[in-house]
Each structure stands twice: as C-alpha cells, then as structure tokens.
Amino acid sequence: MDHRDYRLWDLPTRLFHWFLALAIVAASVSGQLGGGLMTLHGRIGLAVVGLLAFRLAWGLVGSTYARFGQFFPTPARIRAYLRGEWQGTGHNPLGALSVFCLLGVLIAQAATGLFANDDIAFTGPLYDLAGKARSNGLTAIHHLLSKLVYVLVALHLAAVAFYAFARKQNLVRPMLTGRKAGTGEPARGGGAVALAVALAVAAVAVHGARGGWMPPPPPPPPAASTPDF
Amino acid sequence: MKFKLLIAAAALVAIAGTASAQIKPEEAIKWRQSGYGFMAWNMARIKMNVEGAAYNKEEVVKAANAIQAIANSGMGALYLPGTDTGTGWEKTRAKPELWTNKETLGKVATAFNKEANEMAKVAAAGDAAAAKDQFGKLAATCKGCHDEFKIKQ
C-alpha cells in the first residue's frame, strides 16, 4: 500500500475551520434559547468576526491551498469540474463555491448581529450606530440569514458525506491532519510573518466590532440617583 | 307603557354608559406598547447592574418591582378582539394567533408571571449572582412569548 501523502491544509486553516464550526453551533444554540445566553451569543459573535477576518487575511497571505486566488471558482473551472475534466488540488470548484458562499453569508450574519437587538434586553455592540428602527431591520435579516446558514451547513455536511460514500474520498481526515493521501504539490508559505499579519487583522476587526472606535458612552449617573417618585 | 319606555331608555343609557367606558382599540394598543416600553427600561436597568462592575441593590429592586407590577396588572385585557391590526404608538406587532391559540398564550403568560414574581423576590434578597441568573430566566420568558406571538420585522 502506498503511504505517500502531502501537506494540503496548513494548521491555521484547520484551526480556523474547527473553531468556526464550534462557534456556529454555539451561536445557533445560544441564539435560539436566548434569555441569559444572549450575552454569550454576543461574545461568540465577536469571536466569529475575528475568525472571519483572520480567514479573509489568510486567503491572501496563507499557504498555497488556503489562498482565494488558488481556488477561486471561475465559471470555466466550474464547467470543467462538472464535465469531470477538472484536474487540480485543494478545493475543487464546487467546494470553492461553497467556501465563498459560507464566508459571505457568515460575514453578513456576523455584521448584522453587531447592530441587532432582541426586543428584550440584548443589543449588539454597534446598536447605537444604527438606532432602533434600522436595528430592527438588520435583526430581521439576521434571523433570515440564520436559516440560510443552516441550509449551507447542511449542504456542506451532505457534500462531505457524498464524497465519503459515493466517491470514496475522505475529506475529513485532511482537515484534521492537514495531509492528503497521494501525490501532489505540497502547500508552501503561510509562515510566522503571514500568521502575525492575519492575527493582527483579526484583532483590529474584533476591536472595531466591539465598538472600540465609537465615541465613549456618557458616564453613568452616580449610583442610587433614581429619585423616589 | 310610559314606564316600559322609561326602563328601555334607562337600559339604553346604561348600555351607552358601558360602551363609553370601554377602551378604544388604538388606546388599548398604545397602553400595551407603553407597558412593554416601560418594561424595556427596567430590563435594561437590571441588566446594567448584573453585568456591570457594581451591583446596586436598590436599583434592581425598583426595576424588578416595576416589571412584577406590569406582569400582574392584567395587561391581557388590552388585547381586545380585533386589535391584531391597528396602530398605537406604532403599528401593532401582535400576531393573530394570540387571539386563537389560547393554550400556548396561557403557557407563555404564566411562565412570564412566575419569573417576574421570582425576579422581584430575588432582587429583594440582594444577591447579585442570583439576580443575574434570574434575569436570564425572565428574559427567556419574554422571548418565549415573542417567538410565538410577536411579528418579527
């Protein structure tokens, strides 16, 4: 048996993937249950902002197969793939389409969440920038998009199952180990400097999402200043 | 004959009297919206205290008592038949199901009352951690009703 394999997904890409999966599950559960979990929901949202910003940066400075340019699903590539003529490594054109859809929808989902309110006691960190009326509209989009996230995640899982059973291709193992069986051009690049840049981008995104650049709120009135009438 | 007429007239006046004492639909919608708006302020006050650095027991007691009072005010009376449409301070967002699904309505309303009463009790005891926990439970009962009976915009 041939035991040759090559480096496909770098560690930051894999960590991003699994943290994002975990965050989506946690955000869905906490958002659906609401109540005291809304504070946690907001924190998870900020973590997702950081993860997505990291991935966008990593798509430019990461290693070979993590780069958007490497797997951008042009119509020509998709047609070739559907005809069974695509010969490539990394994300196939359909998978790439799924990657971009998921990233796009999740960016919109995280962004609308920052301005959202739940009509009870929770407001996103940038709520004040939108005001109640616009926040309500963005909240409605946030609720709608959550359904779309479920659909895309279900498609993603179905595709993984399809490749596992119909095509006998294990997509999960490379996402765990980073290595793919067979021969191929190993992934290069995405070193320490690139990682530092991507992490810095993520940190800046989270800072902004938390309202770090918003004018500071007026100081709260001194304690027990509520009159007794 | 005259006597009968008098009785009939008196009855008419009585009916007219009750009719004028009845709440107008737009008033009912305004009042219930006001109730929720006032509760929103008090929910925000509790949240500020249980999530902020300092816990001010007096503030939380006042806010929790206000929510409890509204929860026990019999606000259900403001959901007059036909007021699933109409405009108070703004267009009502009550779903028509609120008037038809009495069983679920009873469940969510009872849950809210229970947690609002408990919130007031917990606030009076003055333990910040318990107040935070109870605040979460109370907010969940708000969501329980919103999910069923409030139109998402």
UniProtKB/TrEMBL annotation, chain A:
One of its GO terms (cellular component) is plasma membrane. GO terms for biological process: respiratory electron transport chain. The chain crosses the membrane at residues 41-61, 148-166, 187-209. One of its GO terms (molecular function) is heme binding. Keywords: Cell membrane, Membrane, Transmembrane, Transmembrane helix. Pfam families: Ni_hydr_CYTB. It is a multi-pass membrane protein. It comes from the Bacteria. This is Cytochrome b. It comes from Paramagnetospirillum caucaseum.
From TrEMBL, chain B:
GO terms for molecular function: electron transfer activity; heme binding; iron ion binding. PROSITE patterns: CYTCII. Heme c binds at residues 142, 145-146. Keywords: Electron transport, Heme, Iron, Metal-binding, Signal, Transport. The keyword Signal applies. GO terms for cellular component: periplasmic space. Binds 1 heme group per subunit. Residues 1-21 form the signal peptide. One of its GO terms (biological process) is electron transport chain. This is Cytochrome c, class II.
